[in-house]
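Lecture 7 notes: from sequence to structure.
We start with the chain below.
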Amino acid sequence: MRLGLTAGSPLEWLALRLNLVPRPVMDTQLAFTLAQVVMVASKVGLFDALEPGPATAEEIASRCDISPFGTAKLMPTLVSSGYLKARGETFSLTRMARKWLPSSSPNSLADKLAFQFREWTYLERSEEFVRTGKQQDFHNSMDDHDWGLYQRGMKSISAASAGPVAARIPIPDGATDLLDIGGSHGTYSVALCRRHAGLNAVVLDLPDAVRHSAPLLAAEGLGDRVRHQVGNALTDDLGTEAYDAVIIVGVVHHFTEDQNRELAAKVARALRPGGTYTIADFFRLPHPSQAEQPAALMDFYFALTSESGTWSPAQMASWQRQANLTPAKPTHLPGGYLGLQSATKPR
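Predicted structure tokens for the same chain:
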């Protein structure tokens, strides 16, 4: 999967083929303009305003309390980009937009798009990062408002992947205790506990994450089967033979090589014999020629905003192997996003 230009006619296809289209401009000015258009439309409530049915630009402007002139300029961009349909003077949601954007949709990404305004400011420091290698830890730069947006945004984007990820995470037969490291909103633990009867989960995360994600987890209705524990996996003792399975989803890209090795050793001690340790994250492929665009872009983003960036499944397996766990073959999930690297503690 990749972002890119799509020809709308045979003539456009030929122009692309002959390298006559100024693609760098399309990949930059048009791309960042489209990003802002979709983010702003979501933030002002445009997609919510259209959920009941078709409406004119004037009606949408009134419902959202926004400028009629600005709305009139916004609508064609959303139509041309596949978010809206136009018929006469009225506009309606496309099938894609109806699934992902109204705040009432179970698949809504509205909270993630809201947090992306904050992420935009991180990316403004890309030049500094490339010139100096100086990274920024966004976790330490967020205020209380940002933390709330961050937790809601991460939950919204996790909803789509939780089912496929949970279906592929190996959980030992008869398992009762799961540790979810950095799991905040608990979406993956909830999916696993619903899938495996008798399984209970502890979601370990930082104080700010727990404070803002506690209501999100409570809304899942699993009560004490999935509970939060305030802590830091890098500094806390995880116990000895306390868990049948440990998962860490979308977190190891924030940790250095040494931190990930030390964490794997602590996880190995915390696992019961036969227990499993699953790392779910973007996979860094061993050679640039093999890189899928989403994973490569996220590697840059995470390197900019944390301490490392993404890791290859071979690197993840090496942490597990040095902790005396037995790594399995990596599992690549469809879509160019998460992959799983699991390992088992010998009996």
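Points to note: The mean pLDDT is 92. The two ends are 40 Å apart (CA to CA).
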